[in-house]
Amino acid sequence: MEEQLSKRMQSAVSNFNDDEPDFSDEEYDKYLEQEEEEEEVEISEEEMLKMLDQQEDPFVTCARLFKTVELKSLGLEILTPENVQQLKTHGYLILENVIPETTQQQATEQTMNMVSSNKLHAAGSSKSAEDDPFRDNKARTDLTTWLHHEETGALQEIMTSLFVRLGSDLSKIINLRKHWKQAEYQLAYYKGCESTPGYYEKHRDAFPDDGSNEEGEAQRRLTTICYVNHAWRQGDGGQLRIWERKSDGGQNKDIDPIGGRLVVFLSGAVDHQVMATHKDRVAITAWYS
Q: Which fold has domain 46-288?
């Protein structure tokens, strides 16, 4: 029936100079609806990223988010001008010893107490398959919870002493749509096990974004991760694997989740994953949009 209607419409278009139409208004409306349905093709995030990456290197796209400023005059607290240049050039940077070891230990203990109290849940469990048909709930094994400024203990200390100051720095060098105080904070716990290690498959936190489109929902522009695994040793696994930009060789780089280490990268450019972890692993992430 729909195929017959489509053929009639095509015939009508080819003979549009005829005085008498050979289809009714009702048929015409139905044809338009049919055409709109055919045009609406859903694609996955992975397919969309591949299309966008083919149009332009995502690192080039996201580099346009950086402000043109004199770095030495900004009064940065956490970052240095060299850090900023590394982030712009390579898309990521690594800082060491951003929080003291005592805070790391306290944050780990606080997290384990929250896990025991069932305050963390399987990541993505709040969305059903109908809400997000492309969500792969087998892509990750971590338990997570959102953190807020009302948190207490070591987690609250990390948010205020590190991420608030870091957000202020980042807002001075990157064009953000949201105020840096509106960052998203997430606590993630991976259960370490030799037989069934925790993991998170390769993914990206956002689509490439250069700040030129200010309509719609604000995308994440910067991902910052702080690790509190104070006794991490070689062989424990759980590295953060990131894929470097093509101009840097396009190779992957493995970063151990050592306590006190901070990793910052461009959300819309850097593909990353969590490698198999054989020991309990805790990370606190802040996203700035």
A: Jelly Rolls (2.60.120)
